[in-house]
From TrEMBL:
This is Mechanosensitive ion channel protein MscS. Its main location: membrane. Residues 256-320 form the Mechanosensitive ion channel MscS domain. It is found in: Cell membrane. It comes from the Bacteria. GO terms for cellular component: plasma membrane.
């Protein structure tokens, strides 16, 4: 029969607590944790005014710089505390004391700092926040339980050989994690440099875009090379497959490569720049951004069209601001045949006066262009400044002035009409319905 000796169990618990908790090592480590925390508070109190001063100094110098200082202000105390704890670890190790509890606390603090910084940098991406939190807490837990090195050893035992290089499960995992970090860092740096280039007054928009794209591609390529080296892959092993890989990429990525090369051509020859008003394939709007694969064109109604760069090379593109920001508009107006045509032409020219953005020089003119079925057709020709702000609004104001002037002077704008002349009415009678013989 099972017997439970309570007194013996209590004695075992007490003995374990005496051995692992109530001893000099544990007391020293707990004291070291509290001491480093108080010292971190003191250092943080001394450094905090300088951080706040820096925070106020960058309030009007960009969102990214302000965000960086805000993150530093949040994690400054934990960083100071964890640095002091690792220093205390070294001190206790040199004095011959155990430091397991101190090491566990420092590991958990490291995980918290990594998670807090990442959450601050990527506040809206819940997926990546969870991934980073899981990885950080897993590493911290393994390190706290002294299982990190055995786990790494197990992962290194699983692997395979490619040529002269041995690839292990540990190298794949570490390479993937570091590759993600490097890729994210490359995008962060490229975006930062892109904003700095956009603030430059000495570079044209096309050169700014070209440099930012080249920097982005270069940083991503370097990140990829570093990742492959960390995994343990020797790039020379791909020499045998380079021909087949090139053919495969040529067919599979033909459009992507074509769009990328077309984007580089557009940036180099400066035939298309951000801010240009263009018309391509029935789409009229202003170039907002030039990307590696596509160009963003924003229309007057707020729609953004992502047009592949290849279309700007292979199709006809109307650039309203390529070498001259001025655009000439031609608007055909019909008047009745009994109209004083010369008066109508003078009134059409007069209608351009006072319309915003219609230029006085070159002088607006009216030309008689054709005799239509129902009207005498006169074409108004005038020049418009800054077509990026639209031409339909100018056309509307001009035609409204024409309508008012024509009404005031009795000039009729005709509408199509058809006259039917019946020369003979067919007979209606018996003979008409008589069937043929």
């Amino acid at each position: 029969m099972f017997e439970f000796d309570a007194s013996q169990t209590i004695d075992q618990v007490v003995n374990w607590m005496d051995l692992h908790l109530f001893n000099l090592n544990i007391f020293i480590q707990i004291s070291a944790i509290f001491f480093t925390f108080l010292l971190a508070l003191l250092v943080n109190k001394f450094a905090n005014p300088y951080v706040n001063e820096a925070l106020s100094g960058v309030a009007d110098k960009g969102k990214r710089r302000r965000r960086t200082v805000e993150i530093l202000n949040i994690v400054l105390l934990p960083i100071i505390w964890v640095v002091l704890q690792w220093l205390m670890n070294v001190v206790l190790l040199q004095l011959g004391y155990k430091h397991d509890l101190l090491r566990i606390t420092a590991s958990l603090l490291n995980a918290w700092i990594v998670i807090r910084v990442f959450v601050s940098l990527v506040p809206t991406n819940i997926f990546w926040r969870r991934i980073v939190a899981f990885i950080a807490w897993t590493i911290a837990a393994l390190n706290a339980a002294n299982l990190l090195k055995p786990t790494v050893k197990i992962l290194e035992d699983f692997g395979f050989t490619v040529g002269d290089a041995r690839i292990t499960l540990y190298s794949i995992i570490s390479g993937f994690l570091l590759g993600v970090v490097l890729f994210w860092f490359a995008l962060l740096v490229s975006n930062f440099l892109k904003h700095r280039l956009s603030d430059s007054q000495h570079l044209t928009p096309s050169v700014q875009t070209l440099l930012s794209q080249l920097i982005k591609v270069t940083l991503i390529f370097i990140s990829l090379i570093f990742t492959l080296n960390i995994i343990g892959l020797d790039l020379s092993v791909f020499t045998f497959f380079s021909g087949a890989l090139g053919v495969g990429l040529g067919f599979g990525l033909q459009k992507i490569v074509s769009n990328f090369v077309s984007g580089i051509i557009l940036l180099v020859d400066q035939s298309l720049q951000p801010g240009n008003v263009i018309e391509v394939g029935g789409t009229f709007g202003k170039v907002k951004t030039l990307g590696a694969r596509y160009t963003t064109v924003e229309t007057r109604d707020g729609h953004e069209y992502l047009i592949p760069n290849e279309r700007f090379i292979t199709q006809e593109v109307v650039n309203w601001a390529f070498s001259n920001p001025k655009v000439r508009r031609k608007i055909e107006i019909g008047v009745a045949y009994d109209t004083d045509v010369e008066l109508a032409m003078r009134l059409i020219v007069e209608a351009t006066i006072g319309v915003d953005r219609i230029l006085v020089e070159p002088v607006p003119v009216a030309r008689l262009v054709s005799f239509g079925d129902s009207s005498v057709n006169i074409e108004a020709r005038f020049w418009v400044d800054d077509p990026a702000n639209g031409v339909a609004n100018i056309t509307s104001d001009f035609l409204l002035n024409v309508w008012k002037l024509f009404k005031a002077n009795g000039i009729e704008i005709p509408f199509p009409q058809t006259d039917i002349h019946i020369k003979e009415i067919p007979k209606i009678g018996n003979s008409f319905f008589k069937p043929p013989v």
